[in-house]
Amino acid sequence: MADQQNNDILGSIDRLIDAEKQLRARIADGSADSDAARKELAALEVQLDQCWDLLRQRRALSEFGEDPGAARVRPAAEVEGYES
User: Which of 36, 48, 73, 84 is the most exposed place for a label (fewest CB within 10 A)?
Assistant: First the structure.
């Protein structure tokens, strides 16, 4: 079950990456309204960060024998505040 949920998260990540690439291409060729597209791009980037964070949480919980289902999507402000 955990593997399927991880795969679902990875599927979401793939869809968000595709949407990000398409939006970046539309911004680059001028076919997207610049301000709206940049806001949409920022929202996509936050969603991607949240998905990656959720996947990392699930993998860490599983690695240490805990329930990966206990992982939760963290608020954007928290996820975006991480240092690399």
Answer: 84
The Cα-based distances of 46 to 8, 63, 72, 80, 83 in angstroms read 18, 26, 15, 7, 15
- Residue 29 corresponds to which tokens in the numbers above? 């060729």
Q: For the segment 21-62, what is each residue's pLDDT rounded down to a tens digit? A: 999 999 999 998 888 999 999 999 999 999 999 999 999 999
Supply the DSSP symbol for 66.
S
Cβ atoms within 10 Å of 16's Cβ, excluding its own: 20
DSSP helix, strand, coil percent of the chain (3-state; round to 5): 80, 0, 20
Instruction: Please tell me what DSSP assigns to residue 70.
Output: G
Q: How many whole angstroms separate alpha carbon 28 and alpha carbon 22?
A: 10
Residue 62's identity, in one-letter code, is S
Give the pTM.
0.88
